[in-house]
Structures are given as structure tokens and as C-alpha cells.
Amino acid sequence: MSERELDADVIVVGGGLAGSSAAIVLARAGLDVIVVERGDYCGAKNMTGGRLYGHSLEKIIPNFAEEAPIERVVKQERVSLMTSDGSLDIGYSSEKLSAEPAEASYTVLRAKFDKWLAEKAEEAGAEFITGILVDELIVEDGAVVGIRADGDELYANVVVLADGVNSLLAQQIGMKEELRPEQVAVGAKETIKLGEDVINERFGLKGNEGLCWLSCGDPTLNEFGGGFLYTNKDTVSIGVVATLSDIGYAGMSVPHMLDHFKEHPAIAPYIEGGKTIEYSGHLVPEDGIHMTPELYRDGVIICGDAAGFCINLGFTVRGMDFAIESGRLAAEAIIKARDVYGAYTKDTLSSYDIMLKESFVMQDMKEFKGFPTILSRREIFKDLPEMADEDARKLFTVSGKPSEGLIMEMLDNLAKRTSARELVDLITTILEAF
Amino acid sequence: MSKMSVDDKLGLDVFHTDEVNSHIDVDLDYKDQEEIQKLLYACPGECYKQIDGKFTFSHLGCLECGTCRVLSHGKIVKDWHYPHGEIGVTFRQG
């Protein structure tokens, strides 16, 4: 391998958040980096709900929000349990939310945000090749030595796979299995233009304050998944996410689910008069630590969505902060391999594994490893929103009829829907998850 | 908001289209209705359609999400790879 002329020290496949984060850190350490991105530009193939928790990017670019094209700073949170005509909302708004950069979160649009991050990597010295699809990895004696793209071959000491949730390259060389329907969800989203003032007025926001609103129940007609609405600068991102294994349960297609969600009485008034400017779709990894692939081998390392790094707790959904952190750690592991060993084997890259385990990436995924199980229970998506609706209606309704007492009514309501054994089973699952 | 068809929504997106070559190879003679129904429900771009019992597929309007690959690889979806560089959807918002 030493006799062959290398095109770069490191080739990064994919110019998303993981790839560009890795590229910035590598380039700053003086490594020659080539990032190969299949889209017209970085971000062109990417989509999020979405909210970025800023803490991991802060470590690479402190106070990035001052210059990055973020949409809004999140100051309002809302989570809703929805039935066809009701919505029980839990909301939180505070000046304390996103008060410090390390704890802040932002609504973002990926076509703009990823493009900016790629520019930062370019400024740091990384070279970008866009509009080129990497067809396959070049493997010699079990080690990844380069890539084949559009008839060309490029060689490097290490290839970083940051090629997204459908990492066909990791699958090609057997580091990752085919995705299974219960491990991923499909998101379908519309970006709807409303104007800055209309958004501020309707959602009760000031200046560049933003709202993140997650919901479950009726948005997916009780299928596993949910609805989301994020306020951007002058648009809202609105969409549904549906776990693939459960699609069909309600007999409605994903695009129709999105229309259904937009028509919900709790949603429709907010987007009335808006103009859709883009329609997008993407897969979302949902299975957390259970879908972690083989993360590194001789000459290759996997990060971001390609590694399935994600957490969905229902009220917080994270993936982009994991992508950025894992991209950075992949880069750190490569830098260490260079500095300490001057070689890029499975052994010399193994600090990646250690750093991941010491970081929030693996620790949080481990902590919340039971959530994929909770979020594959019908009770959460059907019974819970229906019960919440019924209890809330009783709580807030005065009809002059004598009341049985709120607690009795709630217990009655619970007993109608579930047996004691089912309830114990559900509670056990939930307790295990925490 | 007034209702839009998926075709109208896709019309808002930028596509660099290769009219001839599809990046997804679909078995249109596949007979298992249950398997077909999964794709009809799941594809956000409505690339899979069944009109008067006839199962059709068009890669134009594909959002490259990979849902059909995950659901039916080796069955209806004989082969699925990404379109060549610069071909396919380009998100301006994302």
C-alpha cells in the first residue's frame, strides 16, 4: 500500500453533518481530506424535521449559531396526544430554554445548513467533490484502501463512511446488515411558507424564537410514529414519521397521512393560507443501540446515520447532534492513529470505540435502549391519546350532572381499555426503559 | 390550506431527471397483493401505483428515501441503488 500514490490521507463519503464535521477536524489537524458528495451540493439530498441540538457542534465551532444559517432558536416546546378531534398538549416556554450555546437547540433546514458546514470544512482545508456518487469501496486483503466513483479510483489511508441511513457501502462490505422495517421510519414533510410575522403572531413567538411541536396518536392514525411541526424563519416544517413495519395498520398511505395531519383541527389554523414550497422524504434510524453496525475495520470507519446513531424518546428526537459528535470522534481516532501508530488498522482505529463509549453517543443510546420497545406498543399510540382525550374532556367539562369523582372516572376509563395484566406488562416495559 | 396531490407537491421540487434509466429495478409482475400494498402505502412519492389492478412504477419523483428497498428488497424491489451523481431530487430547503 505504501508504494501506491494516495489521492488523500482520508476520503469522506457523504457531505452531511457527520462527514463535514469529520472533515473539519481532520483538515485542521493537517490531514489531506477529500469529501465526496452525491448531491449537487452538500445538503441537497438531506432532510430533517427538524431541530439541531447545538452542543456537539459547539465543540467544533464555538458560537456557531452567530454565523450559521439556523432558522430559529428554540424557546417553546410542545408535545401533544391527539385524537381525531382533540389534542391534549403539554407545553413549555421559557427564557431559560436555549439560553446558553452549549444547551441551545435550533430549528434548521438541511439544504442550507449542511452547505454552510461544508464551506467551513473547505475553509479548514478539506476538498469537496460534489455531484459524484461513490459506487463502491476498494478492498485489498480485507482493508479498505479507496473508493470507486464514476469510473475513477481514489485511494486514501482511511475512508470515513458518512453516507447516511441507507449506507449501501457499509452493507456492501458486510459491516452493516440490510435495514429491517422495524428499525427505520419514513418521514414525509412539507415546507410551508407563511412569512415571519405570521409565524410569530400565530405561535406567540418573538424575533427569532422558535417552537418545536411533536405529536402522536391521530397524526399517524395510531400507527407507530407521529407528527411534527417546527417553525423556521419564514416557513414551517410539517410532517409525519411512520415506522415501516407498522405502515398499513390504519389503511392509509404515508402521503395521505401528512394531508390528514395538516387537516387536524389543532394544526390546520396554524398553517392556513400557507404556501407549500417543497415536499421531501427521508428514512430515519429509530432502533438506537440495537442497530449499531461494525463501526470500524482496517482503513474504514462509520459515523452518523450510517451507524444508526439516534434516539427517539417521543418528546426529544436526536440524530444530528449524534452525527456531528461521531464525525468528530471518527476524525480524532484517525488523527490518533496517525500520530501514535502511523497506521490505520482496526487496532489503531479502535480509540473510536472507546471515545464513543465515553461520550454521550453510546451512553445515551444505552441509557434509553428500551425506548424503541416502548415506541412499538400500540397502547402508546392509540390507547394513551384516546384516554388522555377522554379524561381531559371530563376534567374541563361541567354539565351539571353529578360527578363520580375524577379518579374513579379515570380508573374506569383505564379499565375499559386494558386488563390488569396488560397494564402491568406495559408499566414493566416502561420501567425497564428508564 | 387547499389540498394538493403528491404530483403537485413533487412539482415544487427540483429534479435532475434521467428519463430512461431507473435507479430502482422493480418486478412489475409480482403477484403478492400484500407485498404490493406495502409499497402503495409507504412510498412518500407515490412512485408505486395500482390503477385498475395494474401495478406500475415510475422512478420520476423518487425522493431516494430507500423505504421500498427496506420493505421489499429481493421481492418487488429487485435492485435499488442511488441515482448517479447530480441525478434525482435536489432539496433547496431540506
Characterization of this structure:
- The complex is a heterodimer of chains A (434) and B (94).
- Chain A is α+β, with helices and mostly antiparallel strands and 434 residues long.
- Helix content of chain A is 34%, strand content 27%.
- Helices cover 22% and strands 22% of the residues of chain B.
- Chain B has 3 helices and 6 strands, in the order αββαββαββ.
- In chain B, β3 and β4 form a beta hairpin.
- Chain B is globular and about 35 Å long.
- The mean pLDDT of chain B is 96.
- Chains A and B meet through α3, β11, β14, α6 and β15 of A and α1, α2, α3 and β6 of B.
Annotation keywords:
heterodimer, A: 434 residues, alpha+beta, FAD/NAD(P)-binding domain, D-Amino Acid Oxidase, Chain A, domain 2, 3 domains, 9-stranded mixed β-sheet, 8-stranded mixed β-sheet, globular, B: 94 residues, Alpha-Beta Plaits, two-stranded antiparallel sheet, 22% helix
Break the fold down into its secondary structure elements and pairings.
The complex is a heterodimer of chains A (about 425) and B (about 90).
Chain A: E1 8-13, H1 17-28, E2 33-37, E3 51-53, H2 55-60, E4 72-82, E5 87-93, E6 105-107, H3 110-124, E7 127-130, E8 134-140, E9 143-149, E10 152-161, H4 168-172, E11 184-193, H5 196-203, E12 209-217, E13 225-231, E14 235-243, H6 254-262, H7 268-271, E15 275-285, E16 296-297, E17 300-302, E18 311-312, E19 317-318, H8 320-341, H9 351-358, H10 360-367, H11 371-374, H12 378-396, H13 406-417, H14 420-433
Parallel strand pairs in A: 1-2, 1-10, 2-7, 4-12, 10-17
Antiparallel strand pairs in A: 3-6, 4-5, 4-6, 8-9, 9-10, 11-14, 11-15, 12-13, 13-14, 16-17, 18-19
Helix pairs in contact in A: 1-3, 1-8, 8-9, 12-13
Chain B: H1 6-10, E1 14-16, E2 24-26, H2 33-42, E3 48-51, E4 54-57, H3 67-72, E5 77-80, E6 88-90
Antiparallel strand pairs in B: 1-6, 2-5, 3-4
